[in-house]
Automatic annotation (TrEMBL):
<protein>
    <submittedName>
        <fullName>Uncharacterized protein</fullName>
    </submittedName>
</protein>
<feature type="region of interest" description="Disordered">
    <location>
        <begin position="22"/>
        <end position="54"/>
    </location>
</feature>
Length: 84
């Protein structure tokens, strides 16, 4: 009830290969229309390019200049991602 769901997620730049973990949180409330997504701690080398309450639209900028969404809509087959 109104709790924030906190988790870490690995950011990986497909252009230069840089990777680091960011801390993020979402509202753990299925009634809400959007997840109230927020990045709580951005790792060194990455910054927010365009913030959004939707993790698939929250754009991250790598120091190499590449911009990519915090969370991709399509799931990559490379080993999958561990679920928190
Ligand atoms: Zn990069």
């Amino acid at each position: 009830m109104g709790a924030r769901d906190r988790y870490s997620r690995k950011l990986e730049c497909s252009k230069c290969g840089a990777s680091a973990f960011a801390d993020a949180s979402e509202d753990d409330d299925p009634q809400r229309k959007n997840a109230g997504f927020k990045v709580d701690r951005m790792p060194q080398g990455f910054s927010t390019d365009r913030p959004s309450a939707d993790p698939t639209k929250h754009m991250i900028r790598c120091r190499c200049g590449s911009v990519f969404p915090f969370k991709r809509k399509t799931v990559y087959a490379t080993g999958g991602e561990p679920r928190g």
